[in-house]
Structures are given as structure tokens and as C-alpha cells.
Design goal:
By secondary structure, the chain is mostly helical. The chain has seven helices and no strands. The protein has a domain at 3-94 and 126-144. Helix content is 79%, strand content 0%.
């Protein structure tokens, strides 16, 4: 399978998985495509970054993209950020890491359980950092109307 086919397959799997998660969370139907695209874009960034960095760093960049797109869609579509962010983060959540941590704990392989658990915590912490980093940017940054007004005021003050 070529790299382009692999990326497209990952995109569509993340897209439909995110839409499925949005359906479970009762997201309004008109936002399904936006939710799916948000999750798929975050997953593609993760897949591209994981070739060059750790899973935690890749999850950080994926979360950055998800939350950035969510903030933009929130302003454009006038709806809460949680609609896009919660379902968009879904592909990045370290579910397998948590599962294998519990599995290795039950089977008595404590070393492997600790290793998997620490990896899952690192990924979860990286996702939280990505969310906090973008959410801390002021709302006005994402509002084009704010920037238009500011540009006009700056232009008027320079002319005077």
C-alpha cells in the first residue's frame, strides 16, 4: 500500500470513527461532517508526526490541530467548542494503552503494566497540554470581524 493510500485510509477511518462518536454524544446532525473532519485532521497530524517523534509528542500536535480547528468552527458555526473538540479528540485517546495496562495488571506482568500505563498517561497529558495551549488563546484571535475592526481603527489612527 502506498503512503497516499495509507493516509487516505487513516483519514476515512478516523473520519467515520469520529462521526460514530459524535452520534453517541448526540451531536446535532448538521455538525457530523465538521466533527468527522476535525477528528480525521487530528489523526492525520498524529500519523505524520509519529514517524519522527514519540506517541506523546505526536498526540500533542494532533490535539493542537483538533482544538485549533474546533475553535475556528465554533466561531464560524456559532456553537459550543465541545461539539467538535470532544468528538475530535476521540481518535487520539490512548484506549489501547489503558486496556493493556489493565490486562497486564490482571495477568501479573507488573513491569509491562507499568510501562504501558506510563505511556498512556504521557499521551493523555500531552492531549491535555494541547487543549490548554489552544484554549488559552483569546477568543478574539479566532473572530475575523474583530480583526477587521482592529485593522480599520489602526488605519484611521495612522491617518490622523
Amino acid at each position: 500500500m502506498s503512503a497516499v493510500q495509507d493516509i487516505l485510509l487513516n483519514f476515512f477511518c478516523a473520519f467515520f470513527g469520529t462521526i460514530g462518536f459524535a452520534v453517541m454524544f448526540n451531536v446535532p446532525k448538521r455538525f457530523y461532517i465538521s466533527c468527522g473532519t476535525t477528528g480525521a485532521m487530528g489523526w492525520i497530524v498524529y500519523c505524520l508526526a509519529v514517524e519522527h517523534a514519540s506517541a506523546a509528542v505526536s498526540s500533542f500536535f494532533g490535539a493542537l490541530v483538533v482544538v485549533l480547528i474546533s475553535r475556528m468552527l465554533t466561531v464560524r458555526l456559532k456553537c459550543p467548542i465541545t461539539i467538535f473538540m470532544i468528538s475530535g479528540i476521540f481518535p487520539l485517546v490512548p484506549g489501547a494503552g489503558v486496556y493493556y495496562t489493565a490486562y497486564y495488571l490482571v495477568t501479573g506482568q507488573l513491569g509491562e503494566a507499568a510501562q504501558r500505563g506510563i505511556g498512556a498517561v504521557k499521551v493523555a497529558f500531552a492531549i491535555v497540554l494541547g487543549i490548554v495551549f489552544i484554549v488559552s488563546i483569546p477568543r478574539e484571535f479566532f473572530q475575523p470581524l474583530y480583526w477587521k475592526k482592529r485593522w480599520k481603527l489602526r488605519k484611521a489612527s495612522k491617518e490622523a
